[in-house]
Design a protein that fits this description.
Blueprint: E1 57-58, E2 64-69, E3 82-91, E4 96-99, H1 100-103, E5 107-110, H2 116-122, E6 130-135, E7 156-166, E8 180-181, E9 187-192, E10 204-212, E11 218-221, E12 229-231, H3 239-245, E13 253-258, E14 268-278, E15 294-295, E16 301-306, E17 318-327, E18 332-335, E19 343-346, H4 352-358, E20 366-371, E21 392-401
Antiparallel strand pairs: 1-2, 2-6, 3-4, 3-5, 3-7, 6-7, 8-9, 9-13, 10-11, 10-12, 10-14, 13-14, 15-16, 16-20, 17-18, 17-19, 17-21, 20-21
Amino acid sequence: MIHRIAFPLGLALAACGNGTEPSAPSAPSAPSAAAPVAAVPQASRPAAEYELPENAVKLDSGLAYVVLEEGEEGPSPALGDKVVVHYTGTLTDGTQFDSSRTRGAPAEFQLGLVIEGWNEGLALMTKGARWQLIIPPDLGYGAGGAPPRIPPNATLLFDVQLLDFVAAPKFRPGNPENQTTSENGLVSETVKEGTGPVPGPDDVVTVDYAIWSPEGELMDWSGKQTGPFKGDRSGMRLAFMADAIYSMKVGQRVRLEVPAELGVGQPTIWELELVEAKQIVMPEFVMPAAGELKATESGLQYQVVKEGEGDKPSPQSQVVVEYAGWLTDGTSFDASYKRGEPARFPVMGVIPGWQEGLQLMNKGAVYRFVIPSKLAYGAQGSPPTIPPNADLVFLVELVDIQ
């Protein structure tokens, strides 16, 4: 409910596989409004009519705040930093219109991309602080409001706690003395030497990244998203990036000046740091014989590779799994192993064959599923990796149930 604008870049870093089910769904990087918990009245008291508490501090901008809990000693977030907050928003008559606490999860977003009252207030807080922000209409949603929850010219009250923040990376100019230019126009410079090994061609890598315009405007960075990129070469859409990362040493950080034709359609400045590289061990493809499979009424077939001992997930559960998927000819199309970490997703957020199969398993179990096309991607398939009417084979380990 506190969005002002969205700022997706469409990064050239992607998860391994085709990004479709059963891979874990991506989480939003900023909070979105939940369903209203109460009807919003047609009018709210404007700023001039709202009487500030005696202990409120009013700033020149019109923003006011009350310190509910002191924060730690230390820095405050700046514009561009990623912040993690819990908040509850109400109108001046007490009507709640949004709350991360009601949703049960903190909100994460980039400071500067929300209403001005938030941008100003959070930039004054330190980690752990809990403030009530009293935001006048011109620092909130103004004369237009945010229907249907926030009426026009509404003063807003936010109970906000700054749980954490991550400072955005700072732009650094290139040093011509340390730069080299390749035949394709890519300019590279090592800004921090690495001490670890160079990754193998099939290793899973962990990479911190940041992207700026040539003028130094931060366009995107791993801290703004869900964290560093984790995956193998197949998860990198741009050849220059894969070539750079797989020639770096662990711990090395490079600055790249990327021509438009090599990157995202405009000149950009990248910094990449190779945090980790590790060899992956992919399970082998096995197509069980018909006699080794059990079948359900839906047509799902499965083989118990290892029994589990814990609970079984329900339709409402979130699960953590390791998995690998193949076509019936043994062609691999997706695997959590290639990303170097398990996948997390809701049971009902994946293809029907997975929904049914997961609920057969106990925590800790390993099953092999043969999923008919009608319980997978059907006649449309999932281009380019899964053709139409394709039966699929999955090896699945149920790591945890949440």
